[in-house]
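Fold this complex.
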Amino acid sequence: SYELTQPLSVSVALGQTARITCGGNNIGSKNVHWYQQKPGQAPLPVIYRDSKRPSGIPERFSGSNSGNTATLTISRAQAGDEADYYCQVWDSSSVVFGGGTKLTVL
Amino acid sequence: QLHLQESGPGLVKPSETLSLTCTVSGGSISSSTYYWGWIRQPPGKGLEWIGSIYYSGSTYYNVSLKSRVTISVDTSENQFSLNLSSVTAADTAVYYCARQGLGDHVFDYWSQGTLVTVSS
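Structure:
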């Protein structure tokens, strides 16, 4: 079965740029979606189809996808961006989630 | 604005069947451009997809849960349901229902989630 690999944690200084990766075999050929989840809340899509932002998501959030790695980039990180982030794809008639990355804003 | 709300018992005994229903409001479950999915999250852990259903009744299930899962849809009530049989403590989780795009499979609307505990 298809697997997505994310780092367990990423730290970023306030105002700097955070990059969260999602690795998978030839993931560049798939649509990758990213979700933000804060404690006690449901996941919220922040990027879909690799790089598109849903309505209401700040331009600070961007995404890219090529080869074996998809990346979520958060520019000018704010304290409110501290959360868990999950990548997700569709493969062989199944939804696959990455294990999640905890973003800490220092 | 689309709204999804789960309902069902918060406590289930081991070996019994977990049953949840998701009621959709603000939109039709019979839309041809969406699936409707169930996702769960054990306490302190990541997201796990359980399965998804189209309004016609066609389903996709997580292979690891397929033998215990049934998802059904009731278009007249604008609801879809999850049955998970032979539960154990490992099935304790927050259960979410969500709308899933037909083409790209993004979950764009989620329920608030409901904690189901498996315990005697």
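Chain B has no helices and eleven strands.
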